[in-house]
Amino acid sequence: MRPIYITRRLAGSSIAAFLASVLYAIYYYSQGSWGTTERESFVFFFLLLALTLSLALEHSKWPRMILVGLILGFVFLIRPTYGLTWPIFGILFLMEGIKERPLMIWGELLVFGLSCLLPSIMAILAYAHIGRLEDLYLATIWYNFNIYGSMAQPNLPVAARYLLVPKWIYVTNPVGLFAGLSGVLFQVVGWGNCRYHKLFLTISGLALASLASYIFQAKYFPYHLIPFWGFLTIFSGYGFGKIGTLFSVPKHHRLYSGIFYFIVIVFAVFEIPSSLLAYSYQDAFVNLKQGYIDDPAPTPFFRQLTVENYLAVDYLKPKLAHKDKIEFLGTIPLIPYLLPRQLPTRFSCPLDLLVMPRNGKATEMQKRWFQEYSSAVIQARPRFFIIQDPVGDFRNYNNNFAGFNLSITSYKTALQQIFPELQEFLNQNYHTDRKIGSIEIWELN
After folding, report:
1. Nearest in space to 232 (alpha carbons), one of 24, 385, 406
2. pLDDT tens for residues 317-329?
3. 17 contacts 5 by C-beta, under 8 angstroms
């Protein structure tokens, strides 16, 4: 409902608001279950909530500053690159208050800034209370700057990648791009008649901040663009709404406009991958498990892996006692989630341990993590050790993807090379119980 409210406020048109919501819903569904479950979906939701509250509480300055600041602070915890949105709202509040309250506005902005910081401060205090402040720093700051942020080894120079970004954006949603830019153009051309200049500039700023986050992460996953397309879709509804009003045929204006809007929606639907449309038709009313199994994953490898995970769960469930422990060495920890079982280590996704810096060599901190992982599993002596091999086909995940810097692409090789103590422990104490495709289940002797 929030895109409807914001677009209606910007365009003054219910049709524009309706189109914006429908176009975003179609685009969002086209991302499939793998894209829509990522953090960017929640980022867009909370940014929309912040924008909505900033409009609804326009005359309640202090609650507005506090609530919007807290929401943006929470967004920062979800995806730190969206700290870029803080100054956008700050500039909006400054533009609104500098003339009316030239002294008071600075106090309001101070409260807004502190509210933005409060969620991070609370997280720091919580980790400090349990004595894990160093782990918080290593996982959120050190790892992102030293490993995740620098691991990509693109085949193209940075300048060339930036030139290709517009092409990748177009490929993901050509109808949305045309409509969004047309909406922006209508706003700029009719600037004198624009009802809400500050709202237009704020939405534009949020769209640009979302695009900057996509570029800074340098992974070029399509779902990283979800917030960008969300904000651009607001302009899409406005643009198509304006184009629809050009059908000024007497007596038949609504009919022709309605036909145009219907054609727009049909074109948008055809941008949904055919595999996803077929899946929607076949699995809309089947049981949830069958729906998950049939879900068209990003690549055939991951689709097969999903099936194998469910088969492994069906095999393990009747064999596990309440107190039995398991460990899962694989890319997607679906098995421990579905069983469900708490893992003996804090590394629920071991893939993060295999990602290396750009030079391909593990840092001293990573070596400490390797040892920590091995020691935790050995000490826990889980009844079942489950290994999935190989790591995956990440380099085939969308041609726009720079790639994970994986010097080891096999978990069995990882056991030999970076977890040798764990490998020895497994050789001495476990036997192969079952093989299900790429998954092997080892049981304690």
Report:
1. 24
2. 999 988 899 999 9
3. yes
Burial code (b: 16+ CB inside 10 Å, e: under 16) for 367-405 equals: eebbeebbebbbeeebbbbbbbbebbebeebeebbbbbb
Q: Evaluate whether 204 touches 17 at the Cβ level (below 8 Å).
A: no
Residue pLDDT, tens place only, 413-444: 889 999 999 999 999 999 999 999 889 999 99
Token pair, residue 269, equals 């639907």
Comparing CA positions, the residue from 360, 347, 350 lying closest to residue 403 is 360
Rounded CA-CA distance 283/305 in Å is 19
**Residue 217, burial from CB neighbour count under 10 angstroms (0-12, 13-18, 19+):** middle
Interatomic CA distance for residues 13 and 23, integer angstroms: 16
Q: How far apart are CA 90 and CA 129, in angstroms?
A: 32
Q: What is the pTM of this model?
A: 0.84
Assigned token pair, 189: 């051309």
Q: Give yes or no for residue 59 having a pLDDT over 70.
A: yes
Check residue 275 and give its pLDDT. 82
Q: Which two tokens stand for residue 140?
A: 């959120």
Determine the pLDDT at residue 276.
83
pLDDT at res. 401: 37
Contact predicate 140/123, CB 8 Å: no
- As a whole number of angstroms, the distance between CA 100 and CA 119 comes to 30
The residue ranges of every structural domain in the chain are 2-269, 289-444
